[in-house]
Amino acid sequence: MEGQTASTLTVGVPRETAPGERRVAMTPDTVKRLTASGVVVKVESGAGLASGHSDDAYVAAGATVVPDTDQVYDAQVVIKVQKPNQDEAARLRRGSTLIALLQPMSNIDLMRDLAERDITTFSMDAIPRTTRAQSMDVLSSQATVAGYKAVLMAADTLPRFFPMLTTAAGSIVPAKVLVVGAGVAGLQAIATARRLGAVVEAYDTRPVVKEQVESLGAKFVDIPVDTSDAQTAGGYAKEVSTETLRKQQEVLADRAARSDVVITTAAVPGRPAPRLISRETVERMRPGSVIVDLAAETGGNVELTRAGENVEHNGVTIMGQLNLPSTMPVHASQMYAKNIQNLLDLLIKGGAFAPDYEDEIVKGTVITRNGEIVHEMTRQRLAESSAPAAPNTEGGQSPISAPNREPSGTSTPVLTQDGATQSAEAAGIRNSQS
Ligand code: NAD
């Protein structure tokens, strides 16, 4: 299929079927750009409805809207948000290309099946978090939505005001918000909480983010630990030592106990979420306080978090909701589609699908090709899953190989994470705080 001309390249955009998924992979704006270059785009009827795009809008953008799912999956390049289910995967034609949030390390069987059927796959959650790939970085764009929404959920659940008020009925003190982890989601959470008038403090192991936290009007929590090894040479977070983690837990316990809201977003690429807030810490918080744990999917930063659920403990609500971007499908889709468009600019030349597999971004993102799994970390995962189980190993699987450990497409970076500057820019909040 590679190298096909503009007149023959067909792109399919199916309706998402995963429970609760309301995003769409391409908006009419991004479709328009493809059709203008001669690519035929088939959109499944109703695909954009939940994110505010009618079939007519797609037709106006030059797409063909088809009622039949098979016709969309018959395209040479199929573009989705979520990984295909079994039925959808079976509809993909041999030799075609699939672009979606595939979470390959958690979906080894699917990846093996697609490779065997000679389907080339690109996983949007594997886009390297580098400056050059920033415009394609769906983890950042979707984390921006999650950080914002986490604060709104907390504000909605908290039985108090966020802002300070001076009224005839007395004065109201502002809510105190603690944000743990000041990457993309964390910085957006800080900015949102500040906009609502809360007093915000934040902590991150990478001391380099202190300045960004302060530029958003929040106070940086200094924890006297050795942070010299908190990040890699490329600026990516590393797992901290047990001693450092213990010290962090101790200081954060005091801060959390004084906070009305705690938003946790701490994540280390490819590792389970660091456990930062214990049950005892939750028990020290005032009844009515709210914790939103954005790291729920990778094990949670909070001991009591249950992924996908709200838990109440001693009057404190701990929210572990997953897929927050889908709760704001209009802008989440707009950003996802824009990321896709920027990737397609790299993959489609002159209307023909012609990726340069030596390009660093392409190399990092392609998972299966020519009948094989070519993505290094996924190959390693495959090898681990095929190896005979090690007898009597404490804890069973290694954290990274546990099925729910790999970050989801709407969440933790899979491979790398760009430096602090990128995080702030990706959060879209530079200088936004008054
Ligand atoms: P990110 O990598 O940009 O930020 C994570 C931050 O955590 C980094 O700045 C890192 O330095 C910091 N960190 C690592 N270990 C720490 C520790 N021990 N103490 C304090 N800070 C520590 O990631 P992101 O894109 O902002 O995503 C953050 C989290 O939000 C991830 O867990 C991701 O899976 C999750 N997420 C959830 C949803 C959802 O819908 N629930 C959506 C998007 C993202």
Describe the structure.
By secondary structure, the chain is α/β, with parallel strands linked by helices. It has two domains: 10-135 and 328-386, NAD(P)-binding Rossmann-like Domain (Rossmann fold, 3-Layer(aba) Sandwich); 142-326 and 398-427, NAD(P)-binding Rossmann-like Domain (Rossmann fold). The chain has 14 helices and 19 strands. Strands 3-2-1-4-5-6-18-19 form an eight-stranded mixed sheet, sandwiched between helices. It has a seven-stranded mixed sheet with strand order 11-10-9-12-13-15-14. Helix 6 runs parallel beside helix 7 (184-195) and helix 7 (184-195) crosses helix 14 (420-427). The longest helix is centred in the middle third of the chain and has 20 residues, at 138-157. It is globular and about 65 Å long. Nicotinamide-adenine-dinucleotide binds at residues 139, 142-143, 146, 180-186, 203-206, 237, 240, 248, 265-268, 273-274, 276, 294-298, 322-325, 407, 410-413, 417, 423. Nicotinamide-adenine-dinucleotide (NAD) binds next to helix 6 and helix 7.
Overall shape:
globular
N-to-C CA distance: 52 Å
CATH class assignment of the largest domain: Alpha Beta
CATH superfamily of the largest domain: NAD(P)-binding Rossmann-like Domain
Q: Which fold does the CATH topology of the largest domain refer to?
A: Rossmann fold
Main pleated-sheet profile: 8 strands, mixed
User: Pairing-aware structural class of the strands and helices?
Assistant: alpha/beta
- Percentage of residues in strands: 15-25%
